[in-house]
Amino acid sequence: MIDLAVIADHLDSLLGTETIPDYPGALNGVQLANRGAIDRVAAAVDVSRRVVEEAARIGANLLLVHHGMFWGGAQRLTGVAYERLRQLFTHNIAVYSSHLPLDAHPTFGNNVLLAHTLALEPTGGFARYRTLDIGVRGHCDRDTAELFDRVASFAQANGGSARSTEIPGARRSRRWGICTGAGASSETILEAQALELDTLIVGEGPHHTAVAADDLGIVIMYAGHYATETLGVRALAAHLTETFGIPSTFIAAPTGL
Ligand SMILES: [Zn+2]
Question: What is the mean pLDDT of residues 168-174?
């Protein structure tokens, strides 16, 4: 049994929770305490009814997530929000959330781990948010269609599906950028253009990003918001097991996006 405060301190300093900028609704760190100590960790991308029920079923008393409970800001604790908290209280489950600190982390980050999964080696940052590069970029010499096959298998293995803008035959990818989750936006396209990237791998993005990228000769691969953000929490949970000797389980709850 490990005290929640000990685990939280460890995670906060590992992830730079206090110093990494983020959206106010992210509320990184402990979002909900529990009574007593932690002896089983569950990790998931989102806090949802399915996830909380499964965490309770397996007897976890710490739920580690990427998207926390307070995205919408202040909210009434009624209906679904009340029920979720009631379940967490009833089963004595604490919640620790890490959004951008976990996207950007050099070892446990969603972005660096997605690069490694696709056999890409990052050499720099991409997708700037205030003072921080959330994503990664690098060089390669890969057949673009082959790279997309790899992205598609990854998405499928995580309960999703990948899509891509038009890939001309025999096209090669040489300068790539990755931004997991929400991923493609007008800003990331401009940044990709300035960095002369030819291939972007993202979680998702609005339709206009596909039009803009195609005009600029950039291929965007949309690997799924959910799928691209399974890697960080999974790695962090494994790290807690290794560090504190407490078992951990990843709860898969694909959203379809
Ligand atoms: Zn996200």
Answer: 95
CA-nearest of 236, 64, 220, 226 to 156 is: 226
Instruction: State the distance from the centre of ligand 1 to the C-alpha of 251, rounded, in angstroms.
Output: 16
Beta-bridge partner residues of 132: 129
Ligand 1 center to 104 CA (angstroms): 12
State the average pLDDT over residues 81-108. 97
Distance 74 CA to ligand 1 centre (A): 20
Tell me the average pLDDT across 107-118: 98
Kindly state the tokens that stand for 193: 């253009």
CA of 1 to the centre of ligand 1 (A): 31
> How remote is the CA of residue 110 from the centroid of ligand 1, in Å?
10
Confidence of residue 71 (pLDDT cuts 50, 70, 90): confident
What's the burial of 58, exposed, middle or buried (CB within 10 Å: 0-12/13-18/19+)? exposed
- Rounded to the nearest integer, the mean pLDDT of the chain is 96
Task: Phi first, then psi: give them for residue 102, nearest 5 degrees.
Answer: -85, -30
Write out the residues surrounding ion ligand 1, Cβ under 5 A.
181
197 Cα: distance to centroid of ligand 1 (angstroms): 23
Unique residue bearing structure tokens 């460890």: 10
Q: Tell me how far the alpha carbon of residue 182 lies from the centroid of ligand 1, in angstroms.
A: 6
pLDDT at 231: 98
How far is Cα of residue 239 from the mean position of the Cα atoms in its chain?
16
Region 174-192: mean pLDDT is: 95
